[in-house]
Amino acid sequence: MTKRLFKGLLAISLAVSLHGGEVKEKKPVKPVKEDPQELAAKRVEAFSRFSNVVTEIEKKYVDKITISEIMTKAIEGLLSNLDAHSAYLNEKKFKEFQAQTEGEFGGLGITVGMRDGVLTVIAPLEGTPAYKAGVKAGDNILKINNESTLSMSIDDAINLMRGKPKTSIQITIVRKNEPKPLVFNIIRDIIKVPSVYVKKIKDTPYLYVRVNSFDKNVTKSVLDGLKANPKVKGIVLDLRGNPGGLLNQAVGLSNLFIKEGILVSQKGKNKEENLEYKANGRAPYTNLPIAVLVNGGSASASEIVAGALQDHKRAVIIGEKTFGKGSVQVLLPVNKDEAIKITTARYYLPSGRTIQAKGITPDIVIYPGKAPENENKFSLKEADLKHHLEQELKKIDDKTPNSKEADKDKKNEEEKEVTPKMINDDIQLKTAIDSLKTWSIVDEKMDEKVPKKK
Q1: 10-63: per-residue pLDDT in tens?
Q2: Does residue 237 sit in helix, strand or coil?
Q3: Could you give the angle at the alpha carbon of 52 between the alpha carbons of 49 and 57, nearest 5°?
Q4: Which of 150, 149, 145 is nearest to 108 (CA)?
Q5: Which residues are annotated as catalytic?
Q6: 240, 297 in Cβ contact below 8 A?
C-alpha cells in the first residue's frame, strides 16, 4: 500500500538522479596519523600557553580575582564556545537541572534553543502560561525582565525564566512581520501537560493523535489509544510544537508503524557513541495510513519520528520545516556538586541525512491558518439546515433555559473529538485529513485493478 502511494515520488527522485549523468566514486582518504611525540609536544605547548594567561590575569587584572574564579570562567567560556547546547553547570545550575529532570518546577511552558546565535522559542507547550499569553514558535527572545539575551547561554536563560509559581516575569520578543518588539507579562505556574491526546475525528474513520512531548509514557499512551479504536482507517499524528524528549520513546513510537530497518542512528568521535536503533520487527500498525503534522516548533525526538516515517515511506509529512535539533548531550559530573553538559554525537535518519541545523522538510509544505470557506455561509445541505437555524435561534434568545447546559455539552463533545469547526480553523489539519482520504481512494482504485482469482 505504502509503495503504491510513494512510487510517484520515487520515480521523480530516480529521474533526477539519472539526469545528472555518470558519477565517479571517490576513494576514501585515509586520515594522516600524527607522530605521538609531536602530538605530546603540542599538548604541552597548549597547556603552557593557557597557564601563562591564567598567571597574568591572576597577577595583573584590575579587580581582585581568585584562581578558582579564573578557572570557573575559563571552563564556562570553553563550554559555551563549543556549541549552543554544551554548558558548565555550577552547583546552583546543577541543582536546577536536577529539579528540571526529577521534579516539578515553576515556569512558562516554553522550550528554547539557539538558532543563528539567537535565543529562539522552539515551542510553547499547549495549555501553559506562555501558550495562553500568545508566545509562538519561532519568536526570538530579546530580553528576560531587564536582561539582554544576546550573549546569554540557554541554561542561563532557562534559569532566569524559572521561578516560584504565581510569580511574574516579563519577556520581550521579536517576531517576524511585527513592526516592533512585543512585551509579554506572564505569571509562572507548575508545568504539567499531558504528553498524549487521542481523539476521534468526527464523521471520519480517522483518529487524531497529538503528542506534546516525548516523556516516558508516550509509546504506551499512543498504543492504548489505537487499541481502543480498532476500526480506525488512518491517523493524523500531530507533532507540531513538540520540542522532543526521550530517545527511547521516539524509537518506541516509530516501532509501532515501521517493521524493519534502521529507525535512527547516532555517530560521535568515539566508537561507543556510534549506535543504530533498528525496528524490532513487530510493528502492529505497519499498514495504517499516517499523516504527520510538523512545524518550526517540532524538534529533536519529534524530528526523529517524522524523519523515520518519511524515509521508510510510511507517512505523508505535512506542514512547515522543523527546527533542526539533532545532537546528543550527556551530563558528566566534575565532582559531587558540579557537572558539564557536552555534545557527544549527532543523530542521523535512516537515509543517512542529518537533522542538526537542517530539520525535516515536509512532503507537503503548508502554512498555518484557516481553511478557505464558501463566502455564502448559508450554503448548507438540506439535512443540516433545520439544525443550523435552531442554533441561530438559541443565539438570539438569551433566555433559553438550557443554553448554558447546551454550551457545556458542546464543549465536552469537542473535548472528546475533533469537530468540523476545529478542522476548518486549521488548514494544516484539514490537509492531513484530506491526504488520508486520498490515500484511501488510491488504495481502493488499486484494489479494483487487481484481477480476482477464478
Answers
A1: 332 322 222 333 333 345 455 567 788 899 999 999 999 999 999 999 999 999
A2: strand
A3: 130
A4: 145
A5: 300, 311, 325
A6: yes
